[in-house]
Design brief:
Layout (H helix, E strand, L loop, with lengths): L5 E6 L4 E6 L3 H9 L4 E3 L2 H9 L13 E3 H9 L5 H9 L7 H9 L3 H25 L1 E6 L3 E6 L7
Parallel strand pairs: 3-4
Antiparallel strand pairs: 1-2, 5-6
């Protein structure tokens, strides 16, 4: 309901991180349409739902997508958080959370939102690559403690 303030992406083809504001979404649609695979965290249930109304030609539900949260949920039986994955797997922390981004938007701190979004993208990319390279990722559960979780995407063709 709130719409988009910033979308952060990394493109392997160009090896760049980029933040797109609402006015830049036609450019993002083109980038995503040209992608052979869209990789994200909670992409299918959140990002695609928010982005789709802005896209005229690209149907995200039929775009090739790897949603890391969906893959991990299938193994764990519940939805893990990116922060817990990044902390256990990479030793890195998220720089904030979505509610802070809402406050930053109200305060006009768009650069802070960009930094937050791009850091989440970096963590997602690094968790994805760790899973590819090691065949698993680590997850710290409040209930089960530290768990090694198979990265099923490491064997996907």
């Amino acid at each position: 309901m709130l719409g988009i303030s910033v979308v952060g992406v990394y493109t392997y083809a160009d090896d760049i991180y980029k933040a797109y504001e609402e006015k830049d979404l036609p450019e993002l649609e083109k980038v995503m349409a040209e992608s052979s695979l869209i990789i994200g965290f909670n992409t299918k249930h959140f990002d695609n739902q928010v982005l789709q109304p802005y896209f005229k030609n690209l149907v995200l539900a039929s775009s090739p997508t790897l949603d890391l949260m969906e893959k991990l949920e299938a193994v764990l039986g519940y939805r893990p958080g990116l922060g817990a994955l990044a902390s256990a797997t990479l030793g890195e922390q998220k720089s904030g959370h979505g509610l802070e981004a809402l406050q930053w938007y109200k305060e006009g701190k768009i650069d802070q939102i960009k930094k937050y979004c791009l850091q989440d993208v970096k963590l997602t990319k690094e968790v994805y690559e760790y899973g590819i390279n090691h065949g698993s990722v680590l997850f710290e559960s409040r209930v089960d403690g530290l768990k090694t979780v198979p990265a099923s995407w490491s064997t996907d063709k």
